[in-house]
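Hi support team,

I'm filing this because I wasn't sure whether my run with ISE finished correctly. The job status page said complete, but I'd like someone to confirm that the output block is well-formed before I use it downstream. Pasting the exact inputs I used:
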Amino acid sequence: MSLGIGIIGAGIMGADHARTVARHLPGAHLAAISDLDAARANKAAMESGARKVLGDPFAVVADPSVDAVIVASPDATHAALVLACLQAGKPVLCEKPLAATVEECLAIVAAEAKLGKTLVQVGFMRRFDPAYVEMKATLDGGTLGAAVLLHCVHRNVSPAYAFEPFMAIANSAVHEIDIARWLLGSDYVRAIVTRSRKARPADPILLTLETASGALVSIEVFINAGYGYDVRGELVCEQGTVTLAPGLGNAIRHARTDSFGFAADWRPRFAEAYRLELQSWVRGIGGGQYEGASAWDGYVATEVAIACVRALDTGAPVEIQLAERPA
Ligand code: ISE
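And here is everything the job wrote out:
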């Protein structure tokens, strides 16, 4: 039987997920899609063959033809929608961040723990990106020794949404916060965050995070970088390094120059990661075991991101303390 997926939000990511469901998920179909902007919802529905367009996002959760939900609406709406999915007993893939506040994340973690079964996956798609997966496999293989540093760069052409400065951390650098914790297998204990006073309004911002294992993670986040979508990572270990391949596609050498292209936003860079993420999620729904980020991982990412915003605002290092994880 084909799995009926409902998508809430037909913006950049909602429409992208709708296309992925239509093209790359043979065991599933798009049962319903909703957006406050009806024209946008209709356009995404036409492109992806969604069977219903609904105005109310909670109607997607309640609809009997929807077996599982993707939440791709603005960050501040995530918590109420994910809680509604839990109440309806429906699996939910929530775009990052899991929720905008620590309290909301913890309410989701507690509600899921009370149900006694996993229903939440958070859309940290980099965990499925072949380059990061290879980096982790190399580290775990052991030939390079222990990880001591991870350098990350995250640059966008310009803000993708109505952008507030804290979102450079809570909406963008949160990807690195999650992927570095996943790669290094250790939680964070301390954050130091500074901002260039020289550049455009809110960024670049530099985050330095220390893990419980003693490694350091540096993250440059620059949302107004202008020239292209550029994500970099270099893992430094005791006996060598692993570096993500730069840019998109092959390098071209011409006229005494070596060059490669950059995308305008993150979708081309992470297209394969999104596809693998959704395919894994649908398999997880079938088997009850998910490979992606859990509600707890989503909580940790938001807790750390908010600590980093505090570190930026106060100019002082912030100690990171996590809540107690429900049994
Ligand atoms: C956006 O919301 C994403 O999730 C992208 O992956 C990220 O690179 C971008 O900075 C965010 O604004």
